[in-house]
Amino acid sequence: MKKTVVIDVVGLTTGLIGENTPFLKEWSLKASQATVQPVMPAVTCTAHATYYTGKWPDEHGIVANGWYYRDVCEVRNWHQSNKLVEAPKIWEVAKELDPTFTCANMGWWFNMYSSVDYSVTPRPQYLEDGRKFPDCYTQPADLRDYLQAKFGTFPLFTYWGPNTNIKSTQWLADASIEVDQKYNPTLTLIYLPHLDYNLQRIGPEDPRIATDLQEIDKVCKQLVEYYESKGAQVILLSEYGITQVDRPIMLNRVLRKEGLLAIREERGLELLDAGASDAFAVADHQIAHIYVKNEADIPRIKKLIEAVPGVDKVYAGKEREQLHLAHSRAGEIIAIADARSWFGYYYWFDDAKAPDFARLVAIHKKPGFDPVELHADPKIKFLLPKVAFKVLKKKLGFRMLMDIIPLDPTLVKGSHGRMPDSRKEYPLIMTKNKDLLGQSHIQPTEVFDVILAHLKSQKEVAV
Question: Which residues form a coiled coil (predicted)?
Answer without folding.
Answer: none
